[in-house]
Design goal:
Blueprint: H1 2-27, E1 30-35, H2 42-58, E2 63-68, H3 73-85, E3 90-93, H4 98-110, E4 115-118, E5 129-133, H5 135-153, E6 160-165, H6 171-184, E7 189-195, H7 201-215, E8 220-225, H8 228-240, H9 256-264, E9 270-272, H10 275-290, E10 299-301, E11 304-309, E12 312-314, H11 320-324, H12 331-334, H13 340-345
Parallel strand pairs: 1-2, 1-3, 3-4, 4-5, 5-11, 6-7, 6-8
Antiparallel strand pairs: 9-12, 10-11
Helix pairs in contact: 2-10, 3-4, 5-6, 7-8
């Protein structure tokens, strides 16, 4: 009899512990982060770790589901569906293809799961927040920097430029392009213009090769590239074509290789985006949403409450007081043997 009582008490104790554990798990909130690709180094090197660290700082028991779509819209759709099936409480979504994810944003809404569009706007549908940079302003800064360089060189009216825009499936690309055209139209001749699938550096290299063949090497006086990866592809094409002096070329994202190219003179400028502020703001909003809070936003894009951060144009003389000062890269990161002389010239130590 005594043994039976002990066994029953043990069973009750196990059941109580199990119920307590289950109750604790049900209170934990899950935030799903979806990033679009890894060819652009910022996503794995900065966006993901900065976002995850901020979530954990604000909500120690919050769980994070992370997915990278590798520039595959169908894969991202599957990742979102899986997160919703697993019971995610909020989605932070940087869309590969804004049109492709819209039905899943609707699906999240039906499940009362809030959505934050991160870095790239999702159009034609409502959701909780949009966190990004002023993308039209990015394009205007790129266009103005290129125009300033051409004016200084006296070549603005002596040749043609090539425009290498971003992916047509990314709504941000249209904003960058609009901003650049706002500045450049009527002031320079655009010899060739491309919308580059997947933001692919390899495709940008092919586009630049086509442009050199069609326009002639001597007639190209500048290149408007929407980001640093594609700028690298365009530069590779120009080097292969035998350019001894490269025309000014723009970029965006302040990738390490691009900042080094800017210091050595191969690339003219980049747009430095304070990714820390962007990732941390998205994390703050996601944590607030899973806690049932809804902070007010300073502006709207269409009907979407939005937080739009300021981009910063960076040429060689600005690297020290922006990218290095903010700790985005250290002098040790930048000033490899090939770049050391350029670093010394700009006072980066």
């Amino acid at each position: 009899m005594r043994a039976r009582i002990v066994a029953v008490l043990a069973l009750l104790l196990v059941t109580a512990c199990s119920n307590g554990s289950s109750s604790g798990d049900s209170d934990a909130k899950t935030i799903a982060l979806f990033l679009p690709e890894s060819k652009t180094t910022r996503y794995e090197a900065f966006d993901r770790p900065l976002f995850e660290a901020k979530v954990k700082a604000l909500c120690a028991d919050c769980e994070i589901l992370y997915s990278n779509a590798d520039q595959d819209a169908a894969k991202q759709q599957q990742q979102i569906e899986a997160a919703l099936t697993q019971g995610a409480d909020a989605l932070v979504l940087d869309a590969v293809d804004a049109g492709a994810v819209a039905p899943l944003v609707n699906q999240a809404k039906q499940k009362d799961v809030p959505v934050i569009a991160y870095d790239r706007l999702i159009t034609g549908i409502t959701y909780e927040y949009y966190v990004s940079f002023n993308n039209v302003r990015v394009g205007e800064m790129q266009g103005q920097a290129l125009l300033d360089a051409l004016t200084k060189a006296g070549t603005a009216d002596k040749g043609q430029i090539v425009m290498i825009n971003g992916a047509p499936t990314d709504p941000s690309s249209a904003d960058y392009k609009k901003g650049a055209h706002n500045v450049l139209d009527g002031k320079v001749k655009i010899g060739r213009e491309f919308d580059t699938p997947d933001w692919s550096p390899d495709k940008a290299q092919q586009e630049m090769e086509q442009s050199i063949t069609a326009l002639g090497r001597q007639s190209i006086v500048g290149v408007l590239s929407a980001n640093d990866g594609m700028a690298g592809g365009a530069i590779a094409a120009m080097k292969r074509a035998g350019y001894t002096t490269l025309p000014p070329i723009t970029g965006q994202d302040a990738e390490l290789a691009a900042v080094q190219r800017i210091l050595t003179g191969e690339q003219y400028m980049t747009i430095y985006l304070d990714i820390r502020s962007e990732a941390e703001k998205a994390a703050e909003l996601a944590v607030a949403l899973v806690k049932g809070e809804k902070p007010s936003a300073p502006t709207k894009v269409g009907e979407i409450p939005a937080f739009l951060l300021d981009p910063i144009p960076v040429t060689a003389d600005k690297v020290k007081d922006t990218i290095v000062k903010d700790g985005f890269y250290s002098a040790a990161d930048l000033c490899t043997a090939e770049v050391k002389a350029a670093c010394d010239r700009e006072g980066i130590k």
